[in-house]
Specification:
By secondary structure, the protein is an alpha+beta fold. It folds into 2 domains: 193 residues, no CATH class; 123 residues, Roll (Nuclear Transport Factor 2, Chain: A). The chain contains 13 helices and 7 strands. Strands 1, 2, 3, 4, 5, 6 and 7 form a 7-stranded mixed sheet that branches. Helix 3 packs across helix 4, helix 8 packs antiparallel against helix 9 and helix 9 crosses helix 10.
Length: 328
């Protein structure tokens, strides 16, 4: 009996699509880590699968099929990084607002590759490797260093396999990894070890509930009560960033004061293993709650210390409608 893999490499396009499609979500997450953009990652996966199909005669059958796909996906991401000429992240930059291409990743899609107990080799989507702060730090690395660090420290690949991935020597791959680790150590917060929770904790969910309640009651004092003194609000792709509670106070007044845009309804969700809220706005004279924005929260010791705000264009990926109904 012909196996699926044999049929795929014999030229059965349907069989090949089925075989490669089993790895689609984890490839998408890999490309997302490389590019920090959900949409760019989707483009990269499409190109990866196309290159794999066209280059199937180059597959030697000895390499694990999954590893072969990762090698193609990494090269696609390196090509896209060069083609799109993104402005490098400076050593001083750690604000999400500076990465105009940054997009959130819905947890509901991350859960598609949560590894079952009988698949220890599946990609583990830990918070520390998908959280926005980690992604921003990754973007400060040259693309090949970024690929080396993801392969070794995220995917757990060996030095030899990483060298094959990058089509270089083991010594060169190890050198890229060491330089990447130094840069990441300089940019990541010391409390990174606390990021091990796989999804929003009970404390984070409670803070999110208070955040939602404050918005729906337009209660600025309640919103300020759960905000840290060092609160930072960023709004990619607009490069807007406000640092410190005092600097953010005008945002609370604008959102909740008498001149606000309207009334709010918020739906709890999660992105990048962090609590998030999808906001709907009903403007004066309107009868419909319309999609407005998505806030991803960073909570530390019961206080919100960072809010990264994305536009309503991200709602479909979270399975959210463009209009909210109280009957939902």
């Amino acid at each position: 009996m012909t196996t699926l893999e044999e049929a795929a490499f014999a030229g059965d396009e349907t069989a090949f699509a089925d075989l490669a499609g089993r790895h689609r979500r984890e490839l998408h997450v890999h490309c997302y880590r490389m590019l920090a953009s959900f949409d760019d990652a989707e483009d990269a996966v499409q190109e990866t699968l196309l290159r794999a199909w066209r280059g199937r005669d180059q597959y030697d059958g000895r390499t694990f099929f999954r590893a072969w796909l990762y090698r193609i996906a990494t090269n696609v991401c390196l090509d896209l990084t060069r083609q799109r000429s993104r402005r490098p992240v400076s050593a001083a930059t750690d604000s999400p607002g500076e990465l105009v291409w940054l997009q959130p990743y819905p947890d509901r899609l991350l859960d598609e590759i949560a590894p079952p107990a009988d698949q220890p080799d599946a990609v583990v989507v830990d918070r520390e490797t998908i959280e926005l702060t980690f992604l921003i730090a990754l973007q400060a690395l040259p693309a090949r260093q970024r690929a080396a660090l993801i392969a070794r420290d995220v995917l757990g690949w060996s030095a030899a396999d990483t060298a094959k991935l990058l089509e270089t020597s083991v010594a060169a791959a190890n050198s890229a990894l060491q330089r990447a680790r130094v840069t990441m150590q300089q940019r990541l917060p010391e409390h990174r070890a606390d990021w091990s929770a796989p999804r929003p904790t009970a404390e984070e969910r409670e803070v999110l509930a208070r955040f939602i309640d404050a918005h729906e009651r337009c209660d600025a004092e309640a919103a300020i009560a759960i905000a840290g003194e060092d609160l930072r609000v960023s709004m990619p792709p607009d490069r807007l960033s406000f640092t410190g509670l005092r600097a953010c106070l005008p945002l609370f007044q604008r959102a909740f004061g008498p001149d606000r845009d309207g009334d709010w309804r918020l739906v709890p969700t999660s992105a990048n293993r962090l609590p998030a809220a999808a906001t709907y706005l009903k403007r004066p004279g309107d009868s419909i709650w319309r999609a407005f924005k998505l806030d991803v929260l960073w909570v530390d010791h019961g206080k919100i210390v960072e809010i990264t705000t994305f536009g309503a264009s991200r709602f479909p990926g979270f399975g959210l409608p463009d209009q909210w109904s109280p009957d939902r």
